[in-house]
Design goal:
Shape: elongated
Radius of gyration: 20 Å
Strand content: under 5%
Order of helices and strands: HHHHHHHHHHHHHHHHH
Number of helices: 17
Helix content: 55-70%
Structural class: mainly alpha
């Protein structure tokens, strides 16, 4: 997913895109886009309607390419279900239970089914049901694989349930920085005022640069926090950001590019007339790829239009 460019276009609405665009470097939402493509292809080829329950059975019993197609159709079903106001709670509860059982079975399988597990975990979050929430918390605690924990945290974040605050706080101090960065962003996404001090602590004191930046992104994106915005403005420099993130190989530039686009996204949604000087440095730096410089120009113009050219660091 192009993280930031869709929101920074002048003709875009002021409401930010799906909140996960600001999640650093792993965007499970992109799976949904792939799901839609596979789903459309599958529907075109088969012309058949298959219920979610049947799809779970097919996912369990099939393999290879066929299982991928059934997984993508199931995820699309859950995406549509999450947007429907006519969902049957009992049906969703049963689907959540069956999905959770299949996830556990896949995790324990000797076959590498991580991609399949990710889609099923994402689908559980899209159900937005108490049973699915409880199953995800169970998966988070019972399966210590960092990759599974990261996507499970994101799936829980999609539920937007304030009762998950303690769960996210627990993983904010996890030993793995990748797990921490997902936990801290999803904690911020709950938009609970009592979490501000903890988020600021992480932004200031965590020993991982990625975690500190993700804490700042969450604070700026969801809490419109001035200290976080200032922090992001100060690191909005390709050389400094590369140094902070420990990027020494030019082949890893995409890593830095994603970070810059995410920071610009957070600056945009914060609705503050600041960071113009930092953005202008991006525009003036010939070593910065043109796509980033163009986004910076658009954002500067938007800021000037909305805030009368107010400058800030």
């Amino acid at each position: 997913m192009d993280q930031g460019s869709n929101v920074l276009n002048e003709e875009e609405q002021k409401t930010p895109a799906f909140w996960k665009v600001a999640q650093l470097f792993v965007v499970p939402a992109s799976i949904v886009i792939v799901c839609l493509g596979f789903y459309a292809l599958f529907k075109f080829m088969s012309g058949n309607e298959t219920t979610p329950e049947q799809l779970l059975d097919l996912i369990k019993t099939s393999g290879g390419h066929s299982r991928k197609i059934y997984l993508h159709e199931f995820a699309n079903n859950m995406l549509q279900l999450s947007q429907s106001r006519e969902s049957n709670p009992e049906i969703i509860k049963n689907l959540a239970l069956k999905t959770g059982q299949l996830i556990e079975e896949f995790i324990k399988s000797k076959e590498d089914k991580k991609d399949d597990i990710y889609i099923l975990i994402l689908s559980l979050g899209l159900m937005r049901e108490q049973g699915s929430r409880d199953l995800l918390v169970h998966i988070l605690s019972d399966f210590p694989d960092p990759d599974i924990q990261m996507i499970t945290l994101d799936s829980l974040g999609a539920i937007k349930d304030a009762s998950l605050e303690a769960t996210f706080r627990k993983y904010v101090i996890h030993e793995n920085p990748d797990v921490r960065r997902h936990a801290v962003f999803n904690l911020a996404s709950l938009e609970l005022e009592n979490n501000t001090d903890e988020l600021i602590r992480v932004m200031s004191d965590d020993d991982s640069a990625i975690v500190r930046i993700n804490a700042a992104l969450g604070l700026a994106y969801f809490h419109k926090n001035e200290a976080a915005l200032e922090y992001l403005c100060n690191v909005l420099d390709s050389r400094r950001l590369s140094e902070i993130l420990g990027i020494k190989d030019s082949s890893q530039w995409a890593f830095v590019e994603n970070a810059i686009l995410n920071i610009m996204e957070a600056i945009y949604v914060s609705k503050k007339g600041s960071c113009l000087d930092s953005l202008q440095k991006l525009v003036d730096d010939p070593s910065i790829p043109s796509n980033i410089r163009n986004q910076a120009v658009r954002l500067i113009n938007l800021k000037k239009k909305e805030y009368g050219g107010t400058k800030g660091n």
